[in-house]
Specification:
Layout (H helix, E strand, L loop, with lengths): L7 H20 L6 H31 L12 H36 L7 H4 L7 H23 L3 H11 L14 H17 L7 H15 L8 H5 L5 H7 L18 H5 L19 H5 L2 H18 L10
Helix pairs in contact: 1-2, 2-3, 2-8, 3-7, 3-8, 5-7, 6-13
The structure holds zinc ion (2 copies).
């Protein structure tokens, strides 16, 4: 029942994995909660597996082909905490439990009124026999939606206050991808869930689309001079393309390169800046707690900056490059 939107092949495999986890949990005494717990363990496991693959790819890229070497390395404890918080807590909660519950509720509501739920495969029936193409199409639409969310977060003052937590990082590495304020995470996922529901993303596909974003996001934050080549950089967000977005002069409004996974959108909406040689990153207007504080200190500093910028009015601050 919980997988009626899923591809039958992958659903069978996932069902088998879930049954194995469920029986192991039941043996450990989690019988009454074993269904929900097995789903949680499965999605958290997928999240940690994705983080491990990102680690195995990005660590050699940063070690053998670094873009820059810092004389003194800041602690990455807070960034590592963000990465695990996202994979173990946020990802299973949002990507499956929230999305799946909302998908079922919405479908139930529409079916009760004899309304066919809107979906990409409903609009283009041929996509039903090409699940990989449907997956890529859903991925591209969600990425386009995220491009506009990100672009707006640089235009609206209070919103940039919390987004600046991400921009405050002065030593950008692949761990920096998940460095984000919890309020911004909430806005991001509500937005992605709403778009996912509107275009009929199957509930079992949504978590894996999110994992693809996280994987490409980790690579695009890596401190490496390895690029994707001319064509690759005009389709995907490369490490140099995203580093340009993190440049001191790009903090706040008048920024560029807003894409999450695909640079295609920046290219299409004329916000792309290729051939840039940014090395230094950060936000000169960020207080020290936002840059190098602990997880909790960064969150509080994000709220403080959000309140300051909200009082100042609608506009985000102009970039300062001290
Ligand atoms: Zn940004
Ligand atoms: Zn970033």
């Amino acid at each position: 029942m919980w997988m009626r939107h899923a591809n039958p092949l992958s659903a069978a495999n996932v069902d088998c994995i879930l049954r194995t986890i469920q029986s192991s949990l039941a043996r450990l005494g989690f019988g009454p909660y074993s269904h929900a717990a097995s789903l949680w363990v499965f999605f958290a496991g997928c999240g940690v597996a994705e983080l491990s693959i990102s680690f195995l790819i990005c660590t050699p890229l940063e070690r053998f082909w670094p873009l820059t070497n810092w004389p003194k390395r800041n602690s990455i404890a807070a960034d590592v905490a963000y990465a695990f918080f996202v994979r173990i807590v946020l990802f299973p909660l949002i990507a499956y439990f929230e999305f799946h519950w909302l998908r079922q509720t919405l479908d139930g509501f529409l079916h009760a009124r004899a309304i066919t739920p809107l979906s990409l495969t409903e609009l283009i029936p041929k996509l039903a026999s090409w699940p990989a193409i449907a997956f890529i199409a859903n991925f591209a639409i969600l990425d386009l939606a995220d491009y506009w969310r990100h672009r707006l977060s640089h235009r609206i003052g209070w919103w940039y206050g919390i987004h600046s937590l991400h921009h405050a990082e002065e030593q950008l590495t692949f761990w920096s991808d998940d460095r984000s304020h919890v309020l911004e995470d909430a806005i991001t996922y509500v937005w992605l869930i709403a778009v996912g529901l509107a275009i009929g993303v199957p509930s079992m596909q949504f978590p894996f689309l999110i994992l693809c974003f996280r994987f490409l996001g980790s690579i695009s934050h890596a401190n490496t001079r390895v690029g994707y080549g001319w064509l690759g950089e005009h389709i995907f967000v490369s490490p140099q393309f995203h580093r340009t977005h993190h440049a001191l002069r790009a903090a706040g409004r008048r920024s560029c390169n807003f894409g999450t996974a695909l640079s295609l959108w920046d290219f299409s909406f004329r916000t792309a800046r290729f051939r840039d040689h940014t090395v230094e990153t950060g936000d000169a207007g960020a207080e020290p707690a936002l840059v190098n504080g602990s997880w909790g200190e960064q969150q509080l500093a994000g709220f403080r900056r959000m309140a300051r910028l909200a009082r100042r009015g609608k506009k985000t601050p102009a970039p300062r490059t001290t």
